Amino acid sequence: MTSMVNARSLNKQNASLIEPSRYSNSSLVERGKLGARWWAKPNSETQAPLSSAKVRWGNFNMMSLVWLLATAGLIVAGVVYQFFSRQHYKHYEDILANMCDERARMLQHQFAVSINHVHALAILVSTFYLRTYPSVLDQATFAEYTARTAFERPLMTGVAYAHRVRHSERDNFERLHGWTIKTMHSRETSPAYDEYAPTIFSQETINYLVSLDMMSGEEDRDNIFRTRASGKGALTRPFRVLESNHLGVVLTFAVYKELLPPEASIQERIEATAGYLGGAFDVESLVENLLSRLARSEDIIVNVYDITNSSEPLIMYGPEVFTGSTLLHTSALDFGDPYRKHHMQCRLSKKVPYPMLAIGFVGGVLSFVALICAMVYNAHTHVKKVEEGYHKMEELKVQAEAADIAKSQFLATVSHEIRTPMNGVLGMLQMLLDTQLNPAQQDFARTAQASGKALITLINEVLDQAKIESGRIELEMVPFDIRAILDDVLSLFSGKTRGEGIELAAFVSERVPSTLIGDPGRLRQIMANLVGNSVKFTERGHIFVCVHLHEDIEAIQMANNDALIKDPYDWLKASNIGSSSTLSGYNAANKRSSWDLFKVLLENERSNACTSLESQSSEVKLFISVEDTGIGIPSQAKPRIFKPFMQADSSTSRMHGGTGIGLSISNCLVNLMGGQMGFDSIENVGSTFTFTVLLRRVPSNSPSDSNLKLCFGESLPVKFKGLKALIVDGRPLRSEVTKQHLQRLGICVKTANDCNVAVDLLTGACCSVRMGCDSSSFGDFNMVLVDKDAWGLSTGLSFPQAVQETRKKIKRVFPRVDISCPKMILMATHMTPADLEKAKIMGFEDTIVMKPLRARMIAACLEQILIPNGDEEKSAISREPQNLHHLLSGRHILVVDDNRINRLVAAGALKKYGADVECADSGKAAITKLQPPHRFDACFMDIQMPEMDGFEATIKIREIEELVNSKELADEAVPSGKRKHWHVPILAMTADVIQATYDECVRCKMDGYVSKPFEEEQLYNAVCQLLTMT
């Protein structure tokens, strides 16, 4: 009977979805799409004007139409000519731009190379002439060195060094060198100045500069002042170079007598200046040689200008009178001096030819005009048919839009109608499980609860698929910790993998930021789906989740292209099953997670770990892979693997279950996140699914990670920081995963993949410390973590015995040496009673770290082992978040729902944890109970209720609170410290999970949102959010 009533109610609601009154106030009516009944036929009266227009069109003078078409043809021909003409000239402009830019780049590059060599010469002079006593540099050495290295400066006519001489030092300087200081242009003895810059070393090609005062030239003096103040190279304006009379520029570098810090002031640089190294560039010869080496250099005319003074540009190269084409392109030049600006202008040496293609095309257009006119009548008939089809398409369009809206409303209704009774079923089952039941009854109840949760999961997947198909799915942008998400996903499947002895592990690169911005819920959904599929189809071996930066993966793929064999079957043939290169020793479908390439990837990531924040992009592209050693995917099933409701074969769903919709949803979500999903699979070997997602970094001006409120992220304990641990595991990849988890807790870690090496590390380090010798940087270890299957099945259990035997041998040799052994901790995926007994006999701690490893789980185990019970309170630095009972105990909660069963479920769940719960069956009753002053700390409000729904009730409550708060603020009789601000936290409870409902909750100023049926974890997160406001 209940199902019949629900079916009738659904039929009524679906029928009401297509009523016009439902859309009377919608935005679609305003746009004119649903104003009329979409199923009604077009009115004959509305067709009358259209019919009369058709008659007038049929009676239209066809000759007039021909003239009209001819005129239109001429206009089109003109437009086409203009278009192709522009394209023609644009082609030549692009050619000119490319040629000009190429020459500018080459000139700039050659200039930069020469500048670097001049700078190197300045450093050489500073080192071997100024800071070496006695000096090992003289004119002969300088001339020989510069002559032999002239090939490195092909653009320069020569280099010279001018020493800084103050007036008080002039006489001694001239006596020392045997000549007097002369001016540059007159070559006569320089008059008295405060300081001089006579050339003492020069290249053989410009030896005429020796004894000439560089500061006697105006351009050189300005260069000297600028370079010694800035510490960078400085260029002069173009001038005629001595001797050659060519246009050129002089590059000057200051030579300091001592090393200066980068932040040295201008005065400090001036005081430390000992001389100046300059080089002359013959710009005309430089550009001429450059152009002669390029093909088609005669096709363009090149001019180089100094535009430091933009109103009067100085020509450095090229003709002053131009002939040929009027096309002009300007390319910027940067010669390394920020004070001086240069650019290159290029022109074509020949005129651009006429656009023959445009002329020919115009002729063709005009030729076809007559043919088009002849086809007018047939076109008229065709238009008539098109108009009829268009009107039919409009009708179908309106129907499709109405059907789309009806589909969305139907999905929301179905979701609500299914979730509402499921909320009662799951809630009552949970309350039943909290009572005293015998084992058989508990098993029955848990089975029913698991079936209900499976049904809810299926409903969520179908709704997600529907929202994806309709384009209504949206992504959140909130901060979260991806490592916490991975820990949460591993926790979901830890029970099953332990029971079947499957190695389940996750690794997140150190380069992945600790906090990212994106949609953590959807990312968790994708990873949970992929890991869940791997768990479902894997019976032995391992499941390995890796998270790296996409740029690091690309770098490794480019550097190790030969190692990454494209055909996975070749990789399978080249390896041996049982090797230690993978996590569990079983071969995988992709070589990326083998230890050889994983080690290279780690080294590359650590070398790039010091990248500055300024050079990092605001976006982060992650590369996530999920590798398993399961049954693989048959070749014939691979093309349809991402299609919804498709499975590898019909027997898969019967054996393993599932709808085949999870991968399709995950693929769509990955695409929405700006990434791609792919996979490698070998039948009976395994599968590796990979996907990329585009996330954002937390801005540098945002609060620190510790103060940032994260989704799926809580702080880890810091009490273990500084402890030292040794990991003993024969599989390097697995030990690296364990090392990462320990390092997240601040523990210093060392790994040993060989039993003898591990024993030597323990006994040798302990012995050296006891005898006062220098041990390794780790010294004594606080703990030793041994994998149960370190070198094979259960081989790690014998490791303490090997340590004890070595200790005995050392004791016999050094009887006075006290060798203490750190705590031995066993890590295992699966433990039998016999394994537990043997571990206890061998000396392992009672607390065993069970896999999959998670940082918080490891911290809990280490706390039991390393911190004595008596000192637990004193040493505890961080605690687990408050539990529900502590949060809800003594709190007054109002539950508002029109459904009696839902009220019982919500009230029972809250009372279970000590809350004082009161219920209301309508929105009006909730308004009455929440009239200030009241005693409620929070309110759980259902949305869909008769008479007054949850949205309207919340709006009324907020209006009342604002009114009371404004009165409190205006009442001067009440002290400001005793004024109470009324705002009761309201959490929406609904079975409707579409995005529009969440948006409406925000608009109505609700404080949270939870979908039915809700579980303990969901309730905990909601309560934490609500009660932190009070």
TrEMBL record:
Transmembrane segments: 65-84, 354-377
Residues annotated as domain Histidine kinase: 413-697
Domain CHASE, first and last residues per copy: 133-345
Localisation per UniProt entry: Endomembrane system
Pfam families: CHASE, HATPase_c, HisKA, Receiver_CRE1, Response_reg
Gene Ontology cellular component terms for the protein in this record: endomembrane system; nucleus
Start and end residues of each Response regulatory domain: 724-866, 892-1027
Membrane topology note: Multi-pass membrane protein
SUPFAM superfamilies attached to this UniProt entry: ATPase domain of HSP90 chaperone/DNA topoisomerase II/histidine kinase (SSF55874), CheY-like (SSF52172), Homodimeric domain of signal transducing histidine kinase (SSF47384)
CDD domains the UniProt entry points to: HATPase_EvgS-ArcB-TorS-like, HisKA, REC_hyHK_CKI1_RcsC-like
Catalysed reactions, semicolon-separated: ATP + protein L-histidine = ADP + protein N-phospho-L-histidine
Residues with the 4-aspartylphosphate modification: D787, D942
InterPro entries: 2C_system_His_kinase, CHASE_dom, CHASE_sf, CheY-like_superfamily, HATPase_C_sf, HATPase_dom, His_kinase_dom, HisK_dim/P_dom
Any GO MF annotation of the entry: phosphorelay sensor kinase activity
Gene3D superfamilies named in the record: 1.10.287.130, 3.40.50.2300, 6.10.250.1190, CHASE domain, Histidine kinase-like ATPase, C-terminal domain
Main localization (coarse): membrane
Keyword field: Kinase, Membrane, Phosphoprotein, Transferase, Transmembrane, Transmembrane helix
Record EC number: 2.7.13.3
PANTHER family, alphabetized: HISTIDINE KINASE 2 (PTHR43719:SF35), TWO-COMPONENT HISTIDINE KINASE (PTHR43719)
Protein name as it appears in the record: histidine kinase
Lineage: Eukaryota, Viridiplantae, Streptophyta, Embryophyta, Tracheophyta
